Amino acid sequence: MRCVIARFPFDLIKSEVEHSMAGREPEPVTSASVLIGPHSYPVKQVGEVITKQDRRDFTELEVARALTRLGFVCHPTVTPARSAVPGWAETA
Predict the structure, then answer these.
(1) pLDDT of residue 9
(2) Residues 82, 90: contact at Cβ < 8 Å?
(3) What is the spatial distance between Cα 19 and Cα 76, in angstroms, rounded to a whole number?
(4) Short-list 10, 23, 6, CA closest to 50
(5) pLDDT tens for residues 17-62?
(6) What is the pTM of this model?
(7) What strands, in cross-sheet order, belong to the sheet with 33-36?
């Protein structure tokens, strides 16, 4: 599938993305993530591997859109629950 990430065209194939990420240790997920095989990877980590570009050159949305079109399941940025934020008082 042809897609544009950071103004550069890429021809991505699902099996090649899976192969590129095989054996790579997933970084801690603190923002948008993608499920590849049994692992959940940060979208920026996958984008860096498949494009060979610096993570600052593209957005999570660009990579998530391309990965979703390939058939991967992407999850949006995780926001902490209100009660999980230190100093946050839950009011009734």
Answers:
(1) 94
(2) yes
(3) 23
(4) 10
(5) 999 999 999 999 999 999 999 999 999 999 999 999 999 999 999 9
(6) 0.80
(7) 39-42, 33-36, 73-75
In DSSP notation, 20-69 reads: HHTTPPPPP-SS-EEEETTEEEEHHHHHHHHH-S-GGGS-HHHHHHHHHH
For residue 24 the two structure tokens come to: 């790579």
Q: Are 64 and 12 in contact (CB under 8 A)?
A: no
| H or E element in which residue 16 lies | helix 14-21
Element at 14 (helix H, strand E): helix 14-21
